[in-house]
């Protein structure tokens, strides 16, 4: 029996792909639908990629909706320099045969939440928060329906990965992130401070390939391409795997540690636009609004992904 009803909001992206496949491989999760947004690549590609991943997992019944094609206020910034022109470079997946749902992703999110019981749906955010913020602004009555929001975004001790102070997902749409941070619902944040402790190692990548399945081959290819950027940038032994931490937290929260803190998003200064200002030491009187994760059992995290992928 599934223990988590979730909506995935995403911009695939190789690391998004691993998160989506992990959710699709896990019986504990009831995936109500996937909503795409512009981010790592433009909306047409993130939507195409989501459809391809559902087919790769042999879950063609999964509903995929296209959401917003640009941030709320600022021009779109994308990350082809990391993810390649398609967003899933290295995977060599066939064009999808399933199609997008006709309804706009924001409208579907609102409709789905309004039909749900209070505190029953978890929103898993792997991307800029445009869709989620838009839904909150358009229909604030959805808020009581949200059990919690688990999101990959931000960074404090690690700084930023797109500017000196800003993590990509928050930087792309800081105004949306600001709206979500202030929504009043339980938030769990997976920042660079934890994902930079989840580094892919060659032995683990080889184990994916050794699965000898379409999922194993595709994920080995896409992650081998994806990690090259971060390995060169950081000089590390492997690239960080960001977005799957969101799904892993639902499946095995004991793999993670953090604390309740206040998190604010800078939306005024161009110098620090999109910075997540984390009151880690509680030096202000601002009330905590998020569980900010900063520790991970990386071995357990990667073992979980490999174990679940072996079933796909």
From TrEMBL:
GO molecular function: purine nucleosidase activity; uridine nucleosidase activity
PANTHER family linked: INOSINE-URIDINE PREFERRING NUCLEOSIDE HYDROLASE, URIDINE NUCLEOSIDASE
CDD domains referenced in this protein's UniProt entry, alphabetically: nuc_hydro_IU_UC_XIUA (cd02651)
GO biological process, one term: purine nucleoside catabolic process
SUPFAM superfamilies with a match to the protein in the record: Nucleoside hydrolase
Name of this chain's protein: Inosine/uridine-preferring nucleoside hydrolase domain-containing protein
One Pfam family recorded for the sequence: IU_nuc_hydro
Domain Inosine/uridine-preferring nucleoside hydrolase: 6-302
Cellular component terms (Gene Ontology): cytosol
Key words, A-Z: Glycosidase, Hydrolase
Transmembrane segments annotated in the record for this chain: none
């Amino acid at each position: 029996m599934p223990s988590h009803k979730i909506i995935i909001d995403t911009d695939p992206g190789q690391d998004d792909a691993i998160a989506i496949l992990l959710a699709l491989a896990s019986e504990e999760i009831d995936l109500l639908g996937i909503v795409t947004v512009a981010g790592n690549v433009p909306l047409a590609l993130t939507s195409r990629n989501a459809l391809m991943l559902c087919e790769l997992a042999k879950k063609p019944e999964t509903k995929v909706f296209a959401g917003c094609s640009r941030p709320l206020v600022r021009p779109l910034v994308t990350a082809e320099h990391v993810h390649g022109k398609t967003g899933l470079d290295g995977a060599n997946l066939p064009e999808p045969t399933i199609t997008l749902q006709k309804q706009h992703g924001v409208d579907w999110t609102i409709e789905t939440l309004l039909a749900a019981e209070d505190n029953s749906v978890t929103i898993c955010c792997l991307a800029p928060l445009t869709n989620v913020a838009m839904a909150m602004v358009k229909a604030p009555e959805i808020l009581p329906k949200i059990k919690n929001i688990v999101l990959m975004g931000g960074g404090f001790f690690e700084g930023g990965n797109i500017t000196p102070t800003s993590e990509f997902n928050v930087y792309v749409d800081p105004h949306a992130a600001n709206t979500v941070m202030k929504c009043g619902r339980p938030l769990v944040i997976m920042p660079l401070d934890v994902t930079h402790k989840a580094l892919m190692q060659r032995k683990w990548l080889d184990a994916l390939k050794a699965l000898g399945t379409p999922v194993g081959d595709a994920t080995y290819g896409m992650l081998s391409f994806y990690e090259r950027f971060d390995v060169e940038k950081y000089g590390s032994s492997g690239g960080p795997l960001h977005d799957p931490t969101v799904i892993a937290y639902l499946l095995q929260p004991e793999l993670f540690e953090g604390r309740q803190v206040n998190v604010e998003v800078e939306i005024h200064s161009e110098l620090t636009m999109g910075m997540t200002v984390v009151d880690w030491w509680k030096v202000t009187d601002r009330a905590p609004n998020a569980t900010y994760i900063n520790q991970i059992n990386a071995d357990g995290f990667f073992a979980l992904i490999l174990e679940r992928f072996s079933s796909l």
